[in-house]
Amino acid sequence: MLHALVASDGGSTVSELARRLAAWETGKTPEAVTSKERKRTYTALRQTHLPKLAEYDVVDYDVNRGTVALTEVGEDLQPYLWPRRQLGEEYARLAIVAVLSSAVVTVLSWLGVPPFGMLEGYLLTAVVTLAFGIVTLGAYLRSRPSVLHGSAHRSDTQYGGLDDAASDD
């Protein structure tokens, strides 16, 4: 629900919020959501979720007007909505590539194979360090919060099952 409020610039009507959430839950577009699906989500929001979030000052929920908006507390939660994906396997593969590349460069240097034979001592150390630095920089650039936020937001707000939507009504 907080994802939907952020996507709505921090505020929405309960009805529109229910339609958007029902669409995400069913994999349909908001226009293809049936009244039964929207009603089920609307009831859960109105009776349970919104009062509880309002109690903790995450949202400002106006029952009479049927509106809901993120509060400052809710805005502060935004960085936690799309957590960093698990990059352990990717980092492991990158580390293996860096280690193997460095080992190959080192062996070729020791064997005197041109142009690697010119790499000795500090120069060899600099090349190996540069390889690890490039791999680390690449991993950092791919895992920084703004990149992850964007890709997670897209995956959380895209609608699937568009072909099935027409047959459900």
UniProtKB/TrEMBL annotation:
It comes from the Archaea. It comes from Halobaculum lipolyticum. The keyword Nucleotide-binding does not apply. The keyword Electron transport does not apply. Residues 150-169 are annotated as: Disordered. It holds the Pfam family DUF7344. This is DUF7344 domain-containing protein. Residues 2-68 form the DUF7344 domain. Keywords: Membrane, Transmembrane, Transmembrane helix. InterPro entries: DUF7344 (IPR055768). The chain crosses the membrane at residues 91-110, 122-141.
